[in-house]
Amino acid sequence: MSGTSTIPDPGLADATRSEAALRRFLHGLPGVDQVGAEARAAGLGTRSIKTSAKEFALDLAIRMVDLTTLEGQDTPGKVRALASKAMRPDPADPTCPAAAAVCVYPDMVATVKETLGSSGVKVAAVATAFPSGRAALDIKLADTRDAVEAGADEIDMVIDRGAFLAGHYQQVFDEIVAVKQACARADGEDAHLKVIFETGELQTYDNVRRASWLAMMAGADFIKTSTGKVQPAATLPVTLIMLEAVRDFREQTGTMVGVKPAGGIRTAKDAIKYLVMVNEVAGPDWLDPDWFRFGASTLLNDLLMQRTKMTTGRYSGPDYFTLD
Amino acid sequence: MSPTNSRVDVRKTYKLYIGGAFPRSESGHSYEVADSLGKFVANAALASRKDARDAVVAARKAQASWAGRTAYNRAQILYRIAEVMEDRRPQFVQATQQSEGLTAAKAEKVVDEAIDRLVWYAGWADKITQVVGNANPVAGPFFNLSTPEPTGVVAVLAPQRSSLLGLVSVVAPVIVTGNTAVVVSSYERPLPAVTFAEVLATSDVPGGVVNLLTGSAATIAPWLAAHMDVNAIDLTGIAGEPALATELEVAAADNLKRVRRAPAVEPDWTLDPGLEPITAFLEIKTVWHPIGI
Fold first, then answer.
1. So where does this one cross the membrane (chain A) (predicted)?
2. How far is CA A27 from each of CA A22, A55, A162, rounded to the nearest angstrom?
3. Choosing a second label site near A67 at 20 to 30 A (CA), which of B54, B110, B128, B184?
C-alpha cells in the first residue's frame, strides 16, 4: 500500500518507495542534539508573558484545548457534562471562548455529538486499539470506521510502537495510510487524523524526529505526543522537536501539519510556555486551534482560574469551577 | 597566618517558608532587618502577591489531609513544635531580644510563654469538640449532634510588635483544629518568625500546614483578603489601622470569608487567650441521625 499518499516533493516520494528507502531516509535525518534541545526548551520557558499578551495567550489556550476523558469509568452522563463544559467553559462569563474539541473513546462519540450539536466544538475519538495499539490491522480499521460513522470529526490513532522500535517502518507507514483511508466519510470529506507517537516509549529524541517525518509522509493531519496513559507524557523538548519537524516539512512540501502535546500539561503557566515555543519554533501560523492543540482535562480549569484573575483582579479558587 | 579575630561575617538572607520548602521571594526582593537599636541584623525575603498565591495553593493542598488526621495526632505534632522550640531556646531568646529590645531575662520569659502557649493549644486539639460541640435535644426520634469542623485555609496577619509570643498565639489556634495557615509575619521584626519556620520544618508538621511570608501586610493582605480560595482571615496584625482593616473586610466579603477583626491596639499577649482564637475559625456542622428502634 506504500506510495499511495501524494507527496509533492519528488525526494520525499522516493523516500517512501520501499522499506529500505524509508529506513535510509529516516536514519539520514540529522540527529537531535539532546542537550541543545533541552536547553532551548528551558530557555523559551523563561519568557515573561504579562497583561494583554497573557490575556491573548489564555484565550488562545482555551480555544486550543481538546477536553479529554479517556477512562474506563466514563458514563454518558459524564461525557455529556464534559461536552457542555467544552461549549461553555465558564458559564459565569459569556466572553469566554469555547474549547476546540471533546476527546473520548469511540463508543461515546454519538453521545457527545448529540450534546454538541452545531456549536462548532469538534468531536475527537481515540481509535486503533488505544492506548497500546496492540491489535490486528483490520480491528484497528474497524475501530476507526466505527468512530467516523458515529460522527467523529477527528481521529486520534496510536502508532505500533513495537513495530517502530523494531525498525519495521514500512509497517507503521502502511498502517497510518490505511487508517487515513478509513477516516473517509460518506460526505466525501475526511475526518482529521492525529497520529500519537507515545514519545515516552520511543526512548530517544532521534526516534521522535523519525516518527514525526514518518507520520507526516504517511498523511497525518496532526502529530501528537502521547496518549496520556504513559509517563513521561508531553514534555517541552519533545514538542520542540515535533514543531521543528512540522516547520521543516512545510518548507519542503508546502503541506502544513498540526501538533498536539497531550498529558501532563496542567497549569496555565505550562500552556503559555508551549505557546511561546510554537511561536518561536514553528511560527505564528501555528498559533491557531486548527494547527495546535492541547490534550488535557485539568488544564482547562487552571486556564479559567487565571482568566478569572485577569478579569476580576482577584485570585480565584477551584471551588468555582466544575471538576469534570 | 592572619590573626584569629579577622573572620569574615556570615551575612544572612533569610527565605520564605512555603509548602514545607524555603524558597526565595518570586519577586527576588529582600529587605534589611534592623534590631531595636537600628543596627543591621540580616536580610529577610520581601514576599510578593505571587508568593502569597503560591502559599495559598500549598495551604489548600495540605488542608484536607491535615484536617483528616486524628485530633490526638495534631496535638502530638503541636507538642513536638514546643519540644523543638525548647531545644532552640537560646536562638529564640536572642532573636526576641534583638527584635523587641528586651532584656535577657524578659526575653527568656517571652520564649517560655510562647512554648507554654503551644503546649496549651496542643492540649485543646482533642478537647475542643467536647466543649463547643453538643448533643442537641430535638422533638423527634433523632440524635442531633453539632460538631466543630475547621474552616479551611486561613490567612493570618501576625502581630507587628510581639514577634514571637504574638505569632505563636495567632498561628497555634488556627492549625490545632485542622485549618492550614498562610501567615504574614511582623514587618519590622520578622526574625523570630523565620526561626519559627525552621522549627516547623523539623517538627513533623506536614509541608503547607503553616506557610510563613515575611514582608509587608499592607501589600500582601489585600490579595489574601480578596482571594477566592481563602476561607478566613485574621486581621490582628493590622491593629490600629482602621482604614486598612475596613478595606480588607470589604474585600473579604466577596466570598463570605470569616474575618477576625483587627483590634484597636495590639492585645497583651501574656493574658489567658480563652477559646475565641480557636472558635473564630471553626464551622459547626449539625447532623440528624435517626434513633433505631
1. none
2. 8, 42, 18
3. B54
